[in-house]
Amino acid sequence: MDKSWMHSDRRSKAYEFGVEAFLNFAVENLLTTTHIRCPCVKCVNLKVFGVGIIRDHVYFNGIDQSYKNWTFHGEPWEATTNASRNVEEDDSHSRYSFVSEEIDMDDNDFGDFGSDPYEFANVIGDGDQPVYPGCRKYMKLSALVKLYNLKAKHGMSDVCFTELLILQGDLLPEGNTIPTSMYEAKKTLCALGLSYEKMHACLNDCILYRKEYEDSTNCPTCGISRWKQGKDSILKEGVPAKVVWYFPPIPRFKRMFQSHETAKSLTWHAARKSIDGQMSHPADSPSWKLLDDKWPEFGNEPRNLRLALSSDGFNPHSSLSSRYSCWPVILVTYNLPRWHTLF
């Protein structure tokens, strides 16, 4: 498909025809007109909208010109032959290399990681680059994550955050690796691939507006409206009364098996031997053994993950006067050694 229009003037007919061809291509391949990733320079395929909103975004903001392979919109991934992106097979250089052969994963299992399966390894490689030559305290990725946390905590606008990044780059020594714009920072963090979903919920916690209730405007259990009520007692249609943030666990589980080191740790419980007869790991517990006896096919595969469910409330910004609260539901991985637990 001709993609030269992506570099054309947004006021030209070539750009207009190209946008329509792109949207038609996405609808034909994704079979939806309401849940399509937006490829504009601000959303960079992080947000999902309907066709009409995406059309407006691509016109007003412009399309991300680095999005050359439309994998999020139905185009097959094209493997790169760039030798600089090859993953070394030697253990001393493959800390974050893929272990598909070891865990019997096929190409489809990497579908949640983005358009390039080597992209995550490249991003992790950035974690070994110092912020500037000689810096030992912060690496590029850790510094960027901390800066982005500050942005979220204090409600910085994208423009303010971009100016902060530019100032940081000017203050740091020459050769620093700090991104110079919000766009570059978002592209880097997007490559991590750990997405989340926002789901509308009943104000009384009766249901989630998904599946058969996706188009409902009132809760079928208590009858309360899905939309938020303003101070004037008028419903703000389109503004949900309550939102649940959902972090899909499957992509995170797959990500754990991308590292040789972590993949080996996930089967540590099967290789270990209890010498003193004491319970030193959940694998020694009666509950673990009961599960193995009840579902032997599951228990015989050491790579199957054993999870614990935990939930509690906390105040995210340590402000006791804040009315805002979170009630997270956390999955704890029991497969790992007791000194190395991942959530």
UniProtKB/TrEMBL annotation:
Annotated transmembrane regions: none
User: Which residue range or ranges hold the Transposase-associated domain?
Assistant: 3-75
The record's annotation in PANTHER family points to:
OS08G0208400 PROTEIN, TRANSPOSON, EN_SPM-LIKE, TRANSPOSASE-ASSOCIATED DOMAIN PROTEIN-RELATED
Protein's recorded name: Transposase-associated domain-containing protein
Origin species, per record, is Prunus dulcis
Give the lineage: Eukaryota, Viridiplantae, Streptophyta, Embryophyta, Tracheophyta
